[in-house]
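Document type: protein sequence-to-structure record

Subject area: structural biology

Format: plain text, a pair of labelled lines:
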Amino acid sequence: MNRLCMTGLIGIIFVLTWVSFPAAVSAEARLAVQPVFFLPTDNVSYSREDMNSFSDLLSTHLNLARDHWRRILKTDTFEITRNGSRVYYARRPGSYYTLPQAVDAAHLMLEELFDEYGDNRNASRVIYLVIYARPTGSVQGEFLGGARTMNGMPGTGGAFAHLELSSLLTDKPYPFQSALVHELGHAFGLTHPNCYGYHLSENDSVMSYNPRHHSRGLPASTGPGELNPEEYYAIALNRLAFPNFVFIPAVHNPGNKPLDQAVESCFLGEMSPYIGAIYQKRSVGYELFFNRQRVNGPDAKFYSWSQALANCQYNINSKPDINVECRFDGAFFRP
């Protein structure tokens, strides 16, 4: 598997006790999971009927995973593309994707999928969920199970995840349903809980390796897991995936832990330039500058677009002798 205490904003005109997110994330812009069965050239053993059966099973698993994330988040869950599973007939044999080389399987696969579907890392609003159909009888190379965001921190674009078809069908080499929930967490921008100081195998987060979370077939596991405060914080940053999730400090961080720096120090790294350069690294949320010095507190990254507009306008009106500049999701704006 792969490897949010309010501090206040200068000049703020309202006190936040809960956090809302911009309803302006359109259906077209929102991230959605796209299942893809990835068949290398030396895999010729599956019929159309087989693939239809695999697709139906994967759809059931994805809907269970959606229910799981809704139970955790309460107010939102992830989207799935409306076109269902795709079958992609790869350009090379299985050994090309799974045997060690300078570029790992995730980048090699994503390079082909970008070309096939006319996508790129800067514009992508897709979480590619690749189910790798290992050639029959082949045990060459590492088993695939992992996920990452394309561009680093949550809310900066698409993601990639890959899992083995054998796990979908037999729960080997790992239990599929619990692995799916976990790897989607990475695709949303979450890391493992030990980065925040929790025990990797005993913590109750779905991002841990706690064996109590392991599933068996289709039913959900008996210990499905939750999220730690840091993980709720990070999820709240991903408005592309969860525009309706509400981060409430009293609910999601009842111990009033200082979360901002801890989460930022644990952001996943971006994928390599092998899949293309990142044209512009986006920030997330609202930033306020007085005479080119950033003065906002960490809670500003949770502001909705309407809150950012109101606060920026207030500071421009009330501070005529200061050069006030405002930025939202990395772009400067004027009210």
In short: Residues 48-73 form the longest helix (26 residues). The chain is about 30% helix and 15% strand.
